[in-house]
Design brief:
- The structure is a single chain.
- The protein contains 17 helices and no strands.
- The longest helix is centred in the middle third of the chain and has 29 residues.
- It is globular.
- The two termini are 38 Å apart.
- 41% of the residues are buried.
Length: 376
Amino acid sequence: MASLLNSASSLQLSSNYGAFNSQRNQRLAVNPSSTSVYMRRLVVRAAETDTDKVGAKVPDKAPADKGSSFNQILGIKGAKQETDKWKIRVQLMKPVTWPPLVWGVVCGAAASGNFHWTPEDVAKSVVCMLMSGPCLTGYTQTINDWYDREIDAINEPYRPIPSGAVSENEVITQIWVLLLAGLGLAGLLDVWAGHDFPVIFYLAVGGSLLSYIYSAPPLKLKQNGWIGNFALGASYISLPWWAGQALFGTLTPDIIVLTLLYSIAGLGIAIVNDFKSVEGDRKMGLQSLPVAFGSETAKWICVGAIDITQISVAGYLLGSGKPLYALALLGLIAPQVFFQFKYFLKDPVKYDVKYQASAQPFLILGLLVTALATSS
């Protein structure tokens, strides 16, 4: 199944890249016999062509003078322009997105009630984190950047793919290597855990398929703000939790339901990233929530999804006879609300990174509180 999926993916990648380059070349074409209007365009386009010839790949919007090396290696906006291919490869994998997946594995291990601080259990958890974070999340981010290259050419033209800093073959190779490495580690973990049914491998296959249809046509789940963001939230909260719990214990139906509900908070987190892409999403016909409802309404949908979900989980814990855990979770919601008003609700584009850095640690601590509550 994975082989068929990725064969189709590779063909689609090559086809789309050819079409993308064809359109780019058409924009650079000049006609010396044009009218004066076209002569003015000729000057601009000839300058672009000359720039290409000398190898300058940085578009006008690129933050070349103010870019940060730290932002570059994390894969976030404000990145320094880089020529080192290995740094560019890491940038495509967006390491800044790995911690929630790594933490999800920790939560799943805690929820199992069977994790012990032995060298073997620590080694198993580290391998599961490598599978979930650098490998499969890196695969997800790389393939998403590939299919978003035309949108990024509008919103963030200095990113590696639209700027031409990385080639078609390099992107496709990276997608394959990360995917196969992630699936290989998943199979290894099933053998290591002594599973009769390879549950972690199938979770990895399912997550990889979800990542593909999230970014790639014809389904391209991210075209719909509700479905796409929930899929993203489930990938960041539910899947690594399930993998960690299956590695050390048994994945039960009640945990599956609870984590899927918790993924509504992940939907809210995903919306945060949509505000900076409104211009490109609108031009490309993507119905992100800020495009569909407007920024003001989308801001409140975002914080509502995050806060109401956590309050509901706290209510569930209280109803389950675990008032201390419920109180701890409510205590972790309060600073999130504070930072929402201080940063996000004021300006979701200007303060998106600052808001996430300030508020999300409290959300992921709340996940651990919930995991510990379910294990007791």
